Each structure stands twice: as structure tokens, then as C-alpha cells.
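$ fold --in a.seq
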Amino acid sequence: MPLTPKLIAVLVSAGVSSAVFAEDTSRDAQTNQITTFSAALKQAKQNDPELKYSFHTLQAEQEIDDIAFANLLPSVSLQSSYRYQKVDDYYTEYKEQSEPEDSQIARNPARYDEDQSDYSYQVKLQQSLINIGAWQAYDSAKEAVRKSQFTYSRAEQELIYRLSSAYLKALLAAQQLYINQDKLESLQLKLDQTQRMNELGVGDRLNVLRATSSRDVARSDLLQSKSELKDAQTQLENITGSSVDIPSAWVTYGYKVLPNLGNGSEDEWINSIQSNTTLLAEMANVRSKELEADAQKSQHLPTLNFSLSYVDRHNDDIYSDSSNYIASLDLTIPIYSGGKTSAQSRRSEANYNAAQARYEKLLSDKKQAVKLAYSQLSSYRERLLALEESRTSSKTFLEAAERQADLSLGSQVDVLEARTELYNVRLQFAKTLSDYLLSDLNLRLETGQLNDSTLAQYDNLFASNAK
């Protein structure tokens, strides 16, 4: 293959390999394809089994509130019974000893029969008037429901984090594949040029071997990028349930993205940790355990119930028929239950202390996580700025090498080396940008600020620079 056309192709445009990249990575985005962070999240919410599990768990735990509240409401019940009995008493014996025409037996013959039956039904309404333990149990149940709501919110945020991490991983792999493809072509041209110079006697065999080694390493990096992209796309597809096509412009112009997301001081971020949904869930759990302990202690207190009932009884014996209206106040004073109430109270108190200790540990862990995420975010931001300066200087050096080559003051090898160096800077920039955005996700997750708008912000960030 002639050398001059290759060099012209490399010097004219850095996008020589865009067609190859498009074939290796993904198809061009279509209107019905998932391409952006936000679109992928929308699909993931419909597919992710962990989020579905958290949602149904929330629905189940919300019923705890209604169950506890039902203990405070009136209860109405209907009871009915039928009874058959074989009787052997004074009246049955009297019948055996009496004459058949006995008037007393004639007035109520069923009373003197051995076989007797009766049925009855009762309608009863009961309302608790004084039951401190039931009210405290209801308050505890409400806190338990709040905990489940925070737990579900955390599950939503963790889905956003998992999806974003997988998307960033796929995007980084696609960028590395694109850059490594260009880098490999540039190094191949450099090797061709070095071999040509060696054949003409103006080169060095050592330079040929060095160029060959660099080309082989670039080829290995390209194959690794392909493998990493396939793995990342598989992971992303597992979360969303469908394929995700990363916009080719985001891959091609990713080096233009220079975000500044970590606004605010470290103290401000640490103070916002109280919005962490895991902490909020644990705080609600502590409050629930505290109220549960109070409810158990209240089992020692008297309770007062009001009941209203109607009983209607029908018997073969007309003297046993009755209809009764009963209103009563029932006072219950616990005296002794074998130590059961005291043991339950001690257990609830221990559970409360354990929940309090776990909350304090979790608070400490989250503060450390926020400090670490903020430190990483600041560090990656500084590295991005340094790499941006390096990219600018590398681009300037490449342009200078091209001008020298055009004026026959420099070799094409210098141009290819400068271009390779620019590719190396872009690779470092892509990796650092991915790490920077992951640190931002960590910081937002641990401060409870990770939501759909975060991914919309990422979409705008890449879309505005992909021009």
C-alpha cells in the first residue's frame, strides 16, 4: 500500500476510523432506541427486579399501619350457635312418674323431654376506651411505615446509581475503543514509515523494533477495549432489559466535556447528609423501636373497654327463651403473667438500644463516605483541568509538527508520535472523566440528592458538547 495516501488520511482528520468504530460498537441511534441516561433509567424502572421487590415490600409493610389502627377502632361481631342435649334431671324423672294427662306437663311438654335443643345469636360491639399500649403500638407502626418508604426511596436511588455506573462504564469502553482504533492506525503508519526509513538506510533497526512493540501494545489495548465494551453493554442490558445504543457523538467528542459538578464546601456536603435515605430509614427505625418499647412497658397498665351486645336465645323449653340487651364497662388490671410482660419489655428496650447504636455507626460511616467522595471529586476535577491543559499543549505540538513536515523541516514520524501522544492524553481524560462522574454519583447518593434530574443533567452535559 502506498505510504502517502495513508499519511494524508491521518493528517487531514482524526476521524479516519469512525466507520470502523461504528461497526464495532453500536448502530446509529434511532428514535425508538434507548440512547441517553434518562431513557435508560425509565426502562430500568420497568425492568429491574430489585426495585420491584422493594416496591411490593413497601406495599406489604404499609398495611402494618392499618393493622395497628384497627386495634383502636370499634369491633363488631356476630355469633350464632345451635345446641342439642340429652337431659336427665328432675323434670324428665317427674314425667316418667306422672300421669300422661298431667296439666303441668301439658303446658310445657318440651321441658320434660329428654331430647332438647336450642339456638342463639349474639351481636356485640366493643370499643377500647383506655389502652395506652395500643396507641403507642400504633405510633410505632407509623414509624415502621416511614422506614419502609425511605427504604424504597433508597432502592430507587441505588437503581439510578447502578444504571449510571453501568452506562458510564459502557461509555468509557466505547471511547477507549474509538481512540485505540485511531491510535493503532497511527502507530501502524509510524511503523510503516520507520521501516521505510530503515530500508533507505536513514533509520535505525532499534526504532523499528520500538515502533513494532508500540503497535502490538496498541492492538492489545484495542482488543481489550472491545471485550470491556461487550461486557459493559451486557451489564447495562441486564439492568434495562433491552439494548442501549450510546450516541456516537458522545463517544467522538467526549474529550470536550469538562464538568464542574461538586459545588459547595466539604462542610456543606457533610451537613446535607441528614437527607441520606438510609439514615432517614434508620432514624425512623430507632423511633419505631422506642415506641415499641414504651408499648411493651404499658402492658402493665390497666385497660378499659366498653361493650354493647344483644343476645337472642330460642329453646324448646319456653321458659328458657330470652332476649337480652347488655351494656358493660370491662376493666382489666394485669397482676401476674409469669414474667412474660417484663421479659417482652426488656427485649424491646434492648432492641431500641441496638437500633440506636446502629444508627450512630451508620451516621459515622456515611460521614466518612461523603468526605471520601468529596475528596475524590475534587481530585478528579483537578486532574481533568491538568489533562485539558495537556490536551491543548499536545494539540499545539501536533499542529507544529505538521507545519514542520509540510515545510520539510521535520519527519512524518514526528507527526505520528505527536498524534499518538494526543491519543494517550484523550484516553487518560476519558478515564478520569468517568471516575469524576462516578465520584459525583457517590456524593449525591450518600447525601440523598441522587434522582432523575441528575441523569438529565448528565444528558445535557454530553449533548451540549457533542457538536
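$ fold --in b.seq
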Amino acid sequence: MYLYELPTTGAISFADFCADHSGSKAYTHHLSEATQARANIRGILKENKRTEDNERDYLSLVKLLEEYLPYIRALLECVAHDEIILKKEPTFSWRITLTESGFRDSPRMDLPGLHAEYSFVLLTYAFALSNLAHSIVTSVGEYEKDRAISDAERKAKDERLNVAGDFLCRASGIFTHISDIVLSEWQTSRAFKRPPDLSKEVTSALARLSLADAQTLAIRRLLSRAAYDSNIAPGPPLPKSHPAPSLLAKLHIECASLYTSARTLAKTHAASKDMFSGKKEVSQDLRHYLGNHAALHHALSHKWLGVDAGEKGGTERGGDAVAFLSSAKMKLDELNLAMRTRSLVIGSTDKRKVEKLDEVVHTEQTSVNAFYEHYKKMNDTLHFQPVPTTKDLQSRIPGGRIAIPAKAFSPPAPAFGPGSAEHARRQAEQLDLDSPVADDETISENRDETHSRPQSEPVTSQPPVKADYAGAGAYF
């Protein structure tokens, strides 16, 4: 799973550039609340930057971001409805973390406008959800390989993987919302120079990355019982608890497709030069992560296609099993060589990431070799089927299958102003004050008198009262 470097931001006070133009001046205290909510986020981001990875409190950051989002939404709505006037255009300072930089620290960039702030807050929110999922996965460890774990403990850790996958699906929905909605609104508001972090190509790539990571967790969750049953002797025969190899192959094909398309989008941004962003590349760490995991899942899809052919295909598909597993072996060897070459020129932090992936590749190489040797021996001694070429294999690869979809992001209601619960309540109170209460009571009384008469009794007018004052009836 990818671990994001979180941005940091500079201090700001909304009262410095926001003027309350509402009739009752009801928003002044909300501006100070928004300033405090943003200061809380700034404080925890600075604290996380000084803390080790395994000690960072991503859950608290997620909660603080969820508290601040309604305020920035309210400011956008109030400015759009002229209930708050901007005395000057605000500038928000954020440190961009996905841009390739020759400096040790990520560069800081001043972004003008409330839309810039909203975009970066959502981006940070998605980063925090992804990192929270990463911390959950790290905390459960490789429990599938623990022979002493009880069935109840294994199921509890399976459920934690489900929670992590849910966070990743939410992050994917947020990245998509930024790409499809927020950046379009920001682009129409003014011309600006965007960093790669806030380009449509990169945010779309991050949406696919998060969904692919969630799909990887779903595969791990699907294999947890089978991995526990076969961790002593990986390879054939498959345990009864093992899911269908054809299903696993399709899930890995979808993962490879998501990682590949994400990498293509990230590279597309690097190759493009427009009036907004200029020519700046996405960080090599992100691009290498996408490329390595695309290659890994391509290899694993061929592994399970070979196992499916060997286990379910019978005599006729003995050659297919050997061909797919041979292809998987070759892809894993190429990936292993590429990672070892890169580990010679990267820093210690990136080297730890490569070493962790190298462990996964080594485990899969051992498993693939076991299956390959078994099915090759079976084909050489029993089936005698021709082994297809790599070109022939392409026509036998099925389409991918998604395990869990992304979760669409619904923006929270504004904390105040148009669209908020408080604003709706005030409008209802104003309508009550404007309505003629006395007339309503009179209408109600007349309605009761009318309904109290029998249906057959006609409604007649009362005769005039005879006047008894002096001069009554006389006309002058």
C-alpha cells in the first residue's frame, strides 16, 4: 500500500479578508470558529511531520478535517451569495508533496482563492484516509502465517482489513470528486497555476491507485483462510478452503489494469504543458510504486491462470498451465531485477519500501516455482500437450473483475449560511413572523361552524336588526 507524505500549511485568519454582509451580522463568530478549526489541522500536520511513521495519529487528523470541511463549504456558499464579501483575495500556503523536487523538503506554494483551499483540504483528507488504512494493515501484520492464531482472532483481523479497504474506497471517491467536480469549479473561477498534486490527471491517477490498493486488500482477505491452511507447504494441491483460481486471476487482472492506467495518467501529466500547471513531474516514488505493482499483479494474474488451467483444465490444458506459470516466473524475475537495480541509487526510506516489496516478490517466486515444477512434470509425463507461445496466451486472458467499488463522496452541508440547517431554520422563523396568525384563527373558527350544521340545513343570512334610535329610517 502507498503511504503519502502529508502536506503542511501556513497560518491564516479568515477575519482578515472576510466581511460579514448578512442582515443580522450572524456570521462573525463563525469566522473565528473556522479559523480555529483550520489552526487545529495545521497543528496536527506539523506534529505528524515530526513524528515517526508508526506513531502518527491519522485518525485524529481525519476527524479534524471532517470538522473543518463544513466551514470551508460555508464560506464558499456565503461568498457566492454575497452574504460574505472578500476584502481581498485570500492566499493559502500549502506544501506540495507529489511534485518531483530537487530539494530535501517538499516545496511550499501560495494558492489564491477559497477553491484552492477547498481542493487542498479534500486532497489532504484523502491522503489521511489512505494513510489510516495503511496503519491498520501494518498493525494486523502477516497474521495469515501465524500457525498459533485462533479462528476468532483471524476473523477479527479479516474484519480490520475490511475497514482499511473501506477507507481506501472512500479516498478513491474523494480523489474522483476533486478531479470531476472541484477542479472544474476552481478552473472556471480564475486562471491559475496548479501544482501536479491538483491536476485532473494526477487526481484521477490517485483515485485508481486507492481503488487498486483496496482491491489488493480484498484479495488478501479472500485468501486469508487458504493461506493459513497452506502456509507450511505452499503449492499444489490447493486446500479445500482455497477460492477459485480463475476468480483470483480476474481480480489481479483488474488490479494490474488500475495500476497501469494510474501510471499512464501520471506520466501524461508529466508530458503535458498547459497554461495552468507548467511542466512539472509527479514524484518518482509514486511512479515507481505504480509501475512495480502493475508488474506484480500482471505476474500474479498469470500465476492463477496457470493454476486454474492445471487444476481445472484437465489433460487438454496441461500446456496452458506450463505457459502461464513460465510467464509468471519471467515477470517476477524481471521485477526483482528492476527493484534490486533501483535499490542501489535510492535513500534509506525508499530502500525500506523496496525491501518490503522484495519480500512479497520472493514469496511469490517460491510459490510460482512450486506450481510450475509440478505442472511441468505432469505435462511432460502424462499430458504431453504443446506449450503455447506468449502471443497465443494473450487471446486466453479474460477480462478483469472489480472486488469492491469506490465510494462516491458527498460533500458535507455548510456549517452556516445558505444550505446549512441554521440558515433553513432562520428562513422558517421569518416565514412564521410574516404569516397572519389572527386570520388563520378566524378561518379555523368559521370552518368549525360550517361543519357543525346539518348537511340538509341551508345556510341562510341573518335578518337585519331593527334599529330603535331616534330618527331611525328617516332620510334627510
